Amino acid sequence: MTQPTGPGPGEVPVCPRHPDRVSYVRCQRCGRPVCPECQRPAAVGVHCVDCVREAGQRAPQARTAFGAPLRQGAPVITYTLIGINVVVFLLQQALGMAWTYQWVLVPARAAGEPWTMLTSAFLHGGLLHIGFNMYALWILGQFLENALGRWRFLTAYLVSALGGSVVYLVMIDPASRAWGGWVYGASGAVFGLFGIILVVLRRLGRSASGIVAILVLNAVLGFVIPNIAWQAHLGGLLTGLVLGLAYAYAPKNLRTLASVLAPVVVVAVLVLLVTTKLASA
Question: Would you say which domain of life the source belongs to (predicted)?
Answer without folding.
Answer: Bacteria
